[in-house]
Design a protein that fits this description.
Blueprint (H helix, E strand, L loop, with lengths): L1 E3 L7 E4 L10 H16 L5 H11 L2 H14 L13 E6 L6 E8 L5 E8 L5 E5 L7
Antiparallel strand pairs: 1-2, 2-3, 3-4, 4-5, 5-6
Helix pairs in contact: 1-2
Length: about 140
């Protein structure tokens, strides 16, 4: 994973599961979560680690919302899919009261899907969905 920031464009982080970044930035924190989560999901026996990552990065209310979504959709709520992506990119969508990022997953067949992840100023993920926190 690589995180970059520039004055003229949106901050982004991209990855295939490894790399560098700034640990205190919200974009990097979301990218770190997704990188570690995808790595865990791609590792045999990584299910327990994926659950521990959820506990560390996601408050109880978000974990509950994901469990409800997963039961209804028979898929992983963090990824909104039954499998794991080949590549991913996190881009700052920017909002006034919290950080909102767009995550683009690229799957093995080249197809892409997008999610929106919101994070509070104190670096707690508050929303994962296909739309922003107010329109999910």
């Amino acid at each position: 994973m690589t995180a970059t920031a520039s004055a003229g464009g949106p901050r982004t982080a991209t990855g295939t599961g490894t790399g560098t970044g700034k640990p205190t930035g919200p974009i990097t924190r979301i990218a770190d979560f997704y990188g570690a989560y995808i790595d865990a999901r791609n590792t045999e026996g990584g299910g327990q680690l994926a659950e521990e990552l959820r506990k560390f990065y996601l408050p109880p209310a978000v974990r509950w919302e994901l469990k409800v979504w997963e039961k209804k959709n028979n898929a992983d709520g963090v990824l909104r899919a039954q499998n794991t992506p080949a590549r991913w990119k996190v881009t700052d969508n920017g909002t006034a009261n919290h950080t909102e990022t767009g995550i683009t997953f690229t799957w093995g067949n080249g197809r892409t899907t997008k999610l929106v992840v919101g994070m509070t100023r104190d670096l707690r993920i508050l929303h994962i969905g296909t739309k922003g926190a107010t329109g999910s």
